[in-house]
Structure formats: structure tokens, C-alpha cells
TrEMBL record:
TM region(s), chain numbering: none
MF terms (GO), sorted A to Z: hydrolase activity; nucleic acid binding
Record has ATP-binding as a keyword: no
EC number, UniProt record: 3.1.-.-
Pfam families in alphabetical order: DHH (PF01368), DHHA1 (PF02272)
Keywords, alphabetical: Hydrolase
Residue span, DDH domain: 18-144
Top-level EC class: hydrolase
Source organism (scientific name): Rubripirellula reticaptiva
SUPFAM superfamilies: DHH phosphoesterases (SSF64182)
Name of protein: NanoRNase/pAp phosphatase
Length: 328
């Protein structure tokens, strides 16, 4: 499924004011896509606000030096939100929108979705999706092209971060030759990859390092080393001096073990329940497994949320993962 950019540009032309929204626990693709799209729209004379349900993780504040991203509940209430169009980015699921989902449901304006994830809820929105795209950030570059907007350095920086992180810094199978062509254009626009890499991966806290040590120490291998799984309890954050977002990308470390083909991490949330992240380099379709638990994503990477204790959640999830890894 590819995006009909002619229809997209025609629809954009009908509106003057936009609110951009993305998923809870926003990552680089969510934030970078919003920031990049906001600049694209402003370049063609549109009025734009970015309003999310969750705050930007502290480690990703470098993406938004102007602090343009607003947060629902932080001096922004539902009645303060008015626009011609709400653009939902990097998700197509109500569960991923948090409290902004209620705002979107109640809004009488038109809605647009720009996303690269497989599967979607009935959001009462016009869908512009490309399941083959490695990141929503790539779709924003295509949107800029369709709208006749040149890529600038300030636009390119968050979009580079979006694409780089959603591809595991270009390690995942979703990377194509077109990925590198787009990245080349962003570099031509003035983006400096080493600066973004440094902001993302070379500013760890002691707490983050300790938490990763805890995660790795709990890693268990099954199915002759093909499946790796580990977990984080909510008390681990205080014990290590870490933040909840310090678990991001930790699952990928378990795949560094020789022979590992799939992995799952169970991360207990501060309000209870577990966030699940799945990764696959084998027959297992991460998206299909995640959908069994109300989540979704891509074949190689997906996520979900499940209520219960660690033992209860593991007993529900791991049998399904084992079957998927074994191709059953």
C-alpha cells in the first residue's frame, strides 16, 4: 500500500490550521515526523500546533530546541484545541493516542492519518499509509516533495533521527536503497549524522547503564538460543536511578547474542501492566504476535500492552512467541 500523494496534497490545500498528534511514549519517529511535518506545513503558509498526550522524553528534547511540542494537560486543555484538520502521525490505533484520543473523537474537524504501521482502527480519518516505508519520517520527506517544499537543515534533522532510529541506525531489513537516497538528501540539506548519533547514543546516564545491566542480567535463552526474553520491574527504575524511557532499544542488545533470532522484553509500567516489545529475524511475524495482545507494528518489530503481574503476562505471551519462532 502506497500513499496517494495527489489526493494528500489536494486535501491539505483545503485547510488552513492543523494540529499534529502522535502516539503515547513518543519515540524519534513520532516526534521527528511531527516536527518535520510542522515545518513543511508552515512553509506553505499553514498554522500548525503539535499536541501530544505524553511529554517528550528528556533524552529526546534535543529534537525540539524551540519547545514547540505541547502536551495535553500541561497548560493545554481539550477546549483550547481548535483547527481545521487533525493529522495523526506514526500510529493508527486508538490505544496509542492516550488522552488525545478523546480529543480526536470529540473533534468535529477532519482527520488525516500519515503512518507506516500495518493495521488500523476505525479513526474516522482519511488514511495515507505505506506499509513498506521504514519510518513515518520518510513519508514526511515524500509529503514535502509532493507539496513542493524544499528540505531544510532544521526540517531534516528530526527527520534524519526518525528514519535512523526506526531502522536501528540502518541495520534493520526495512532499509532499502531508497532509504539511503533520502538520507543523502537530508545530509545535503545540512544534517550532520555524527551530531545526531552523539545526541542519541553518547549521552547515557549512569542510571541508564545500570538499568541496561539489570536487563541483560535477566536475559534468558530458549529454543536452542533462538529466542531471548527479559524484563524490567517498575521498582528497577528507582533502584538504578533510571527513567522509564531508558528501556528504549534495550531489546536490541539481546539480539547481539550469536544465534538469537527473536526477542521480547516485558517492561512494567509505573501505573501497572506491561509494555511488550517484540523483535524478529526469523519466521516470527512480530506484528501478528503483537496483534494477539491488542498491539501491532511491523514484521520485524512490534509492541503491545498487557495487564497483569509479570508471571501472568509471561505465561500468556511467551507460549505465543515460542510457537511463532518455531513456525507453528
Amino acid at each position: 500500500m502506497s500513499v496517494n500523494w495527489k489526493a494528500f496534497t489536494q486535501q491539505i490545500s483545503h485547510y488552513q490550521s492543523f494540529v499534529l498528534v502522535s502516539h503515547i511514549r513518543p519515540d524519534c519517529d513520532a516526534l521527528g515526523s511531527e516536527l518535520g511535518m510542522a515545518e513543511v506545513l508552515r512553509t506553505i503558509g499553514k498554522t500548525v500546533r503539535i499536541i501530544n498526550a505524553h511529554r517528550t522524553p528528556a533524552a529526546l528534547n534535543f529534537l525540539d530546541p524551540a519547545e514547540a511540542i505541547e502536551v495535553l494537560g500541561d497548560h493545554v486543555e481539550p477546549e483550547d484545541i481548535s483547527c481545521d484538520c487533525i493529522m495523526i502521525m506514526d500510529t493508527s490505533a486508538w490505544a496509542q493516542l492516550g488522552d488525545m484520543g478523546d480529543v480526536i473523537r470529540a473533534a468535529s474537524c477532519d482527520k488525516i492519518v500519515l503512518d507506516h504501521h500495518i493495521g488500523e482502527d476505525a479513526l474516522n480519518a482519511t488514511m495515507y499509509k505505506d506499509y513498506q516505508a521504514e519510518a513515518t519520517g520518510h513519508l514526511v520527506v515524500q509529503a514535502a516533495d509532493a507539496l513542493g517544499v524544499p528540505i531544510t537543515r532544521s526540517m531534516g534533522m528530526p527527520l534524519f533521527a526518525a528514519i535512523a532510529t526506526d531502522t536501528g541506525w540502518f541495520r534493520f531489513p526495512s532499509v532499502t536503497a531508497e532509504t539511503y537516497r533520502v538520507i543523502g538528501r537530508l545530509i545535503d540539506a545540512g544534517v550532520v549524522p555524527s551530531e545526531i548519533y552523539g545526541d542519541l547514543y553518547e549521552r547515557d546516564t549512569i542510571g541508564r547503564l545500570k538499568l541496561r545491566g539489570t536487563i541483560l542480567s535477566r536475559t534468558e535463552a530458549e529454543l536452542d538460543g533462538k529466542l531471548m526474553h527479559t524484563y524490567v520491574k517498575k521498582e528497577d527504575f528507582a533502584a538504578c536511578g533510571a527513567m522509564p524511557n531508558d528501556t528504549e532499544d534495550a531489546i536490541n542488545l539481546t539480539l547481539a547474542v550469536q544465534g538469537a533470532q527473536a526477542a521480547v522484553i516485558f517492561v512494567e509500567q509505573l501505573k501497572g501492566g506491561f509494555k511488550l516489545s517484540f523483535r524478529s529475524r526469523c519466521e516470527m511475524d512480530s506484528n501478528e504476535v503483537a496483534q494477539l495482545f491488542g498491539g501491532g507494528g511491523h514484521r520485524a518489530a512490534a509492541g503491545a500492552f498487557v495487564e497483569g503481574t509479570l508471571e501472568e503476562v509471561q505465561n500468556r505471551v511467551l507460549p505465543a512467541v515460542r510457537k511463532a519462532v518455531q513456525g507453528e
